[in-house]
Amino acid sequence: MAQLRLALAQVNPTVGDLEGNADLIVEWTRRAAEAGAHLVAFPEMMLTGYPVEDLALRTSFVEASQRTLEQVARRLADAGLGDLPVVTGYLDRRADAPARPGRPAGAPLNALAWLHRGRVAVRSAKHHLPNYGVFDEFRYFVPGDRLPAVRVAGIDVAAVICEDLWQDGGPVSVTRAAGAGLLLVINGSPYERSKDDVRLELAARRAREAGCTLAYVNMVGGQDELVFDGDSMIVGPDGRLLARAPRFTEELLVADLQLPEAGSEPLPREQPVRAADGATITVERTVLSPHPVPPYEAVPPPVAPPMDDLAEVYAALVLGVRDYVRKNGFRSVICGLSGGIDSALVATIAADAIGAENVHVVLLPSRYSSGHSVADAEELVKRQGLQARTVPINPMVEAFERELHPSGLAEENLQARVRAVVWMALSNQHGHLVLTTGNKSELATGYSTLYGDSAGGFGPIKDVTKTMVWALARWRNEQAVAAGQVPPIPQQIIDKPPSAELRPGQLDTDSLPEYHVLDALLDDYVERDMGRDALIAAGHDPALVERVIRLVDRAEYKRRQYPPGPKITGKNFGRDRRLPITNRWREPSAG
Amino acid sequence: MAQLRLALAQVNPTVGDLEGNADLIVEWTRRAAEAGAHLVAFPEMMLTGYPVEDLALRTSFVEASQRTLEQVARRLADAGLGDLPVVTGYLDRRADAPARPGRPAGAPLNALAWLHRGRVAVRSAKHHLPNYGVFDEFRYFVPGDRLPAVRVAGIDVAAVICEDLWQDGGPVSVTRAAGAGLLLVINGSPYERSKDDVRLELAARRAREAGCTLAYVNMVGGQDELVFDGDSMIVGPDGRLLARAPRFTEELLVADLQLPEAGSEPLPREQPVRAADGATITVERTVLSPHPVPPYEAVPPPVAPPMDDLAEVYAALVLGVRDYVRKNGFRSVICGLSGGIDSALVATIAADAIGAENVHVVLLPSRYSSGHSVADAEELVKRQGLQARTVPINPMVEAFERELHPSGLAEENLQARVRAVVWMALSNQHGHLVLTTGNKSELATGYSTLYGDSAGGFGPIKDVTKTMVWALARWRNEQAVAAGQVPPIPQQIIDKPPSAELRPGQLDTDSLPEYHVLDALLDDYVERDMGRDALIAAGHDPALVERVIRLVDRAEYKRRQYPPGPKITGKNFGRDRRLPITNRWREPSAG
User: What PANTHER family does the record tag this protein with (chains A, B) (predicted)?
Assistant: First the structure.
């Protein structure tokens, strides 16, 4: 056996910022060198950020990625870091693939490079291209067909990219045949609730299949609707967890590993192997450093404890907001504050993300606002130290009413839209990003006003059901109490029955079932794609099933016009759930 | 040689409306029978409409499609039409495909069926799955691997689906080996400018490759952002055009063909053939009617003349609006009318689509509106007989100003948003669909107000550059003059310099270059994905290139929140151009 100190750089790149991402590689390689690492690995598409979507099809962008990669290799050597092998993801392309219908323009590759002594020593590319959920990689990439097996400190290290771990066959299935002592997997794997359990189980299974230690490095940070949670880890050949990084934060996970030393017999530089998916994968051998490092005293690696469900959701929301604000060049946010639970939670998340001094809230009372709403909102402002302003909307609403005489829904929507005009004007005047406060239960059922409460640039709780909104508010208050602080959200806001306050005495339950009933049904219909009969068989009330299916299907056009927000479930009405707008499909009746 | 009267049913299905689409199959099969046809073909995914997107992943929907297909076969027989073979597209699934990561849930198939004598005689599925532009078929389908060769009236007829014609290899490449006398291609091929020329060339090439006559049937109608233009056609084995249907309208294209009679030697029922793309395609032979029909007098088939460029664009826009209104259950539309060219063209398109009596326009003059704007708008209303109403916006704008004191861009946007609140209130009160009037040049550069002029349910000219807006307006007026009618758009509206009229004396050219310069640059940057250096090398002004790239990239977040509109170019900022919102990529400088 040979020793290896491995560093996994769980960092936060930004899509399109090649220079900034290159700086991150140099900076974190320096940290790895200072920690005495013998090998350092960065996430999938580290150099470009991920996902790049249509940028992959732009020649100038692909060439910039290729050029920047070479520069990074030289910069590392110039900085005295050239002897430390670096594995990183980047965007490349196949030079030998002619244009043809159905092949992405320029034949881009989701690629992996080994940087060593000032040059790019080895290149390979992702074999399995995910094209489901938030992934569209058949649009953007052509598949790779090589497995690099690179000798570092006398150990043969194989390296693959993300989906190659998830699907059967491909390069992972030939890792054992390649005789690798370590399988390195670089990832851009977005957060989903409880995905950490699935990942650990998968890594353990693949380690056993490959018969070697498996190291998994994932990026961290927000990108549009996606949040990457990190969760980098190392498992032994028996599937046992050896090391794990904390989630939702940048981290250098350093671990001392005992790995099988490579044999001394010469092996072919290239060796085609039939993979389990029918493809032929060529094992490509390279030697960077043939001999084991001198024995040294190993330090036990850190194993971050798992997070509980609410803690991880809350952390995803905070990171999603912080990175959307920061990466898009904003410094402050604004949102309406009604005195209800949704806007209270959004303001609290925003304050945790960017500081209360950068969170602007507008109280917009109307003739239907209750006294307690204003008082509760003011109490929340006081507890958190938010930047608050009150703009009563009656004068504007009345100016419209004198001309248009709206009634019913038109009158309710008018108030919501006047509020949006106010916060958009303040946003335009002062440069704040507008946060919308709608939750997933409302969004799913269309219980919101287009260009009213749904107007804004980012929706922090867009993918959070109402039931979970309450749970998160309670959880956040409990955390404060446990830390000896004042709970940020007044209990009154959590306890009162939800109301849009767009007409006298209005309650959400006038229009919608109780949220615990609704949310369970939405989960089965939206997340699980269950049909009408299956929903009823699962125990949901038949009349409610009919009604909610109708509401959800009708609200599709509204959701198309909603702003993005951090994704935390399997389907968040973004690209991962794309139903036609014009759509006459109705679930068939049981009879 | 044997005779065959072939009917291609170029019809307009609706996504999700299985019953309605089934009715269309029965009705148009009846028409084909009345026309004496021996075989009738319907478009791709006829039974479900196309594209169904995530509905393909819903078990209840797939099962409904399978069930409805069987019912249609029985209904045709019950109606005395069972002896006329019917080829149609529908949604099926592979029963033998276990769930695995990366495979669409339920293994759906974009399928093709032959209906005959009350039953489904033959089933096959699309082999090449397009996953570029507006297509996402790797998300939704698993590939088929069979080529049906079905003997009808003594002729062996092979049948494939859409993309199988566009890509090399697959079932089309084994058609010659299968000895087919006719290759039938059923399509859901959306309109793009000048695509008719490409299609004819492609059909001619594939006919020569297959060595037989090729019949191409396409759907017609609007579906969300897509417009299907029909353009069904038949070409001979030498690639010569034999018949062609008019576009943008439902049509039964009937043609008498002379086709090679199948040999009498027995052939294997199933025959695997290695296709040019490396796949194995199984030719599956079925006999529906072994003997040629008795000789009859053939009628020369119709060949619709090609449409000129502006005529086809205008027809696509009218059909897109009409079907979006109709298929979504609206009866009327509303839009703002400023006196400018964009809203004038949108109102004219809408009047042509659904009748002037169903087109409601609101004149919303502000303190900055010029006298001629109001007069021009009123003249347009009078010429076309639109339903008009005037709502001066000063009182509402002033109510906001008293509270918020906006300046600069905030003040300009306020006016645009107050207008949107007015038309949304009228829409909510009266049930009109709101049409937005923004054009592609504005949309690309972000020259519009979020939740202001961009607010609405459908954007008829969303994919039309300003240069083409003028060209279409002139073309529409010329058509009227040629027909002895009053031109619908006052010349004054076409001639005056464009202005948003949001501040005194404002002109578009204050903020943007001349539109003919801008539009040429947008075409190269957006449609062709050209990088900065390539744009400058193509002759665009370097300073303008820098500026427009910055404008277009910055406006990405706005376009994400734009409503859909009919697609007429390669990329219309819908799903076919999906750039990240958070995106720091900037084209590198020349130095």
Answer: GLUTAMINE-DEPENDENT NAD(+) SYNTHETASE (PTHR23090:SF9), NH 3 /GLUTAMINE-DEPENDENT NAD + SYNTHETASE (PTHR23090)
